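Exercise 3.2. Students should predict the tertiary structure of the chain below and write it as structure tokens, then compare their answer with the key that follows.

Predict this chain's 3D structure.
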Amino acid sequence: MPDDSSYLTPGTTVYKALLIFLLALGMNVASAQDVKAVYHITAGVEDATAALNNIKNHLDADPTVRIVVVANGPGIDFLLQGAKDSKGREFSAAVSTLADRGVEFRVCHNTLTTRHLAPDALLLEAKVVPSGVAEVARLQAREGYVYIKP
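Answer key:
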């Protein structure tokens, strides 16, 4: 079998097809690398206040980012109905505004069970997941989210 690689020289149909394929592949890789971030909140309302500010700033800098907030342990406190920050402002407005911008809020079922809280104690924007830690791991391992601990 002769070693004739002339079909890959510039200008040939095979060369052009290969070049188009590689360019298309590169564009698909670039679009597949959209930023997805999981913010993990595990402490009380002071940390939640800082996290919500970080999330707002993140969205302002990159409106295309996909953000999921996962809360467990004391980190769920800001997602309880009537929860207020240190200045007496309810978190519900900030959470609603971020949810309107596409941010998802997920709360650990294990925490709710341990604290004897019903899901209806949460803000409407919050979705209950079986385990906060397992949700963070799943988002990172299976969906390519980067981990942010504010």
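Discussion points: The chain has two domains: 1-33, 34-148. The beta strands are 36-41, 66-71, 104-108, 126-129, 146-148.
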